[in-house]
Amino acid sequence: MENKTVQSYFYFTLLKGYENVRIFYFLLTITAYFFIILFNVSIILIVLKDKSLHEPMYLLMSCLFLNSLYGSSALFPRLSADLLSTTHTISRPACFTQIFVIYTYAISEYTVLTVMAYDRYVAICQPLQYHNIMTQRRISVLILSAFSWSIFWMSLVIYFSIRLPLCGNQIHRLYCSNWSVVRLSCVSTLSNNIFGFFVTVTTVFLPAGFILFTYIRILLVCRKSTAEFRGKALQTCLPHIINFVTYSIAIFSDIALSRYEPGQILNAIVLISSLEFIVIPPLLNPLIYGVNLPGIRKKILSMTISLNVALRS
After folding, report:
1. What pTM was computed for the model?
2. Per-residue CA distances from 291 to 75, 163, 236, 285 (Å)
């Protein structure tokens, strides 16, 4: 008979077998984290210091970068320590804290992208009313709602998961995920599964559906507009579209991965699929927005030129 207990520690089994290359992966991890901090903080500071960029689009973009810093802080420091360790354990409180931070990041990424899609929809489809609709007060409410939505749902998810009696303590990932812990339960998890499906629909599929709806409306407006208008619309929407598509692929890969039992798929696929949504957006988003948005691109070029002049003098 299985022993029902409250596990004090969990073990990351996916790290086994990489002892010979763990220093390489450690260096890769800290390098990725360094660039995530550098890229995201740099653009946030550019937006904050330049008053001409204090517009809804740039403020929402900064929220996206802040969320990237928040989410990556739950993975990279812990993963770096685990790569240098031989035990690969995590305490129960730390595990559930990591789950909360990583998945509030994941949900907030979608909710902020949803608010950004609404901003672009109003700017392109209702340009004359844009400043009356996207007021500072409304932007503040939308940003607060975007982050509150993720905190509310993940608080409920953690509440239901933390109450489960567990018959195991091995997690087949590089970090704690909710489903990895829930599947260790000694009792039926039907209610958790139903609630998890409902949360997935409300925090992933509904925002994704709204974003697709806004772009369909934008496309309809662009079809009837001039080539110059379409070019400007594409320039401001392209970074958001790329971000939305890459993040959706990454998050749906993680959702699909959670349906498989440990050992059913290759460790390399588990490794890539589970890290995509935490690593790729924080690294690529600043580059995508920095290259495509003229306001940010000009400031980056100006800073680069000033730095080169300072280094030569």
Report:
1. 0.90
2. 27, 47, 11, 10
